[in-house]
Amino acid sequence: QVQLVESGGGLVQPGGSLRLSCITSGFTFSSSGMNWYRRAPGKEREWVATISNGQSTTYTDSVKGRFTISRDNAKNTVYLQMNSLKPEDTAVYYCNRRFQPLDWGQGTQVTVSS
């Protein structure tokens, strides 16, 4: 059964940090590129970061230098380390396979507010 289960969100003050996790199952994770996305209130879902199966990474401009995507193939898990968080990072965060996207998970809510 294919599953994407995101966790690690929460309420954090501006400038704070969170580490999101996405545990996957049902497909060959180690050979799959993975993406993080987010959907802010009232906006469309947007791409945030990509990690290839070869560990290369790319980021949307607004998070470069603050967010880091990584993966642990032994745990079938992709992570998003988020530092220097800003109110505009508030969103529900999702992971998905880079190519041939799967059914979306439930996401994890990140709220950046003082």
* Helix fraction bin: under 10%
Q: State the distance separating the first and last CA atoms.
A: 40 Å
The biggest beta sheet, please?
A: 6 strands, mixed
Low-confidence stretches: none
Element pattern in H and E:
EEEEEEEEEE
Structure explained in plain terms:
- The protein has no helices and ten strands.
- It has strands spanning 3-7, 10-12, 18-25, 34-39, 45-51, 57-59, 67-72, 77-82, 91-97, 108-112.
- A six-stranded mixed sheet has the order 2-10-9-4-5-6, with no helix packed on it.
- The termini are far apart.
Brief overview:
With 114 residues, this protein is mainly beta. The chain has strands at residues 3-7, 10-12, 18-25, 34-39, 45-51, 57-59, 67-72, 77-82, 91-97, 108-112.
